[in-house]
Design brief:
- Helix 1 crosses helix 10, helix 3 packs antiparallel against helix 5 and helix 7 packs across helix 8.
- The protein folds into 2 domains: about 120 residues, P-loop containing nucleotide triphosphate hydrolases (Rossmann fold), CATH 3.40.50; about 55 residues, no CATH class.
- By secondary structure, it is an alpha/beta fold.
- It contains 10 helices and 5 strands, in the order βαβααααβαβαααβα.
- Pathway: Cofactor biosynthesis; coenzyme A biosynthesis; CoA from (R)-pantothenate: step 5/5.
- This is Dephospho-CoA kinase.
- Its EC number is 2.7.1.24.
- Belongs to the CoaE family.
Length: about 210
């Protein structure tokens, strides 16, 4: 029985697995593969993006960080916001304090509507947010920091310092590795990652 069933209502909640990692570690690749296999996957980043483009949260963010984080179409300029919060840890903490309650309220509502027995929740800041009651178990997508830096610089066109500051804004993957229920090693390519996910799923099916 899911941890969420202890929180909400009489409806039996799905078994919830949190998918986390670090920036550019491969969380979204694992999530996409799980979707290909037909599993229900919720992307918390997309939930956050949608909420931050809606009043009153967008108005709160604009008031807090300035009008320049809103573009000419009245939408959140994520690049401008990132340039603020990733250069100042206090600003990043403020952003998380303003957004996380809204995001996790929406995630709980979405989980309550899931009809599947099993649901995956992709959450980059899973441990940082401290909302562990949402998950029955956590899978960490891991790779070493040198590979993480290289992938982030290549993917986003960041300088070394830009990539390092974004990685350093999150908990180290080694710290998360000690806490996770299962580690998906994404060091050795896509096929190896798929094999590990398949093994994890088989173990999960046997357990459930």
């Amino acid at each position: 029985m899911s941890a969420l069933s202890k929180i909400g209502g009489s409806k039996l909640m799905p078994y919830v697995i949190g998918i986390t990692g670090g920036i550019a570690s491969g969380k979204s690749t694992v999530a996409a593969y799980l979707r290909q296999l037909g599993y229900h996957v919720i992307d918390s980043d997309q939930v956050a993006h949608d909420l931050m483009n809606q009043a009153p949260l967008l108005e709160t963010l604009s008031h807090t960080f300035g009008d320049r984080i809103v573009d000419d179409r009245g939408q959140l300029d994520r690049r401008q916001l990132a340039s603020i919060v990733f250069s100042d840890p206090n600003s990043l903490e403020t952003l998380n304090q303003l957004t996380h309650p809204h995001i996790f309220e929406r995630l709980q509502a979405m989980l309550a509507e899931v009809q599947a027995e099993l649901c995956f929740l992709e959450v980059p800041l899973l441990y940082e947010s401290g909302r562990l009651e949402l998950y029955d178990e956590v899978w960490l997508v891991w790779l070493d920091e040198a590979s993480q830096l290289e992938r982030l610089m290549k993917r986003n066109g960041y300088s070394y310092q830009e990539a390092k500051s974004r990685i350093d804004s999150q908990w180290p993957l080694e710290k998360k590795r000690q806490l996770a229920d299962r580690v998906i090693n994404n060091q050795n390519g896509y096929l190896e990652m798929k094999n590990q996910v398949n093994q994890a799923l088989q173990g999960l099916i046997n357990k459930l």
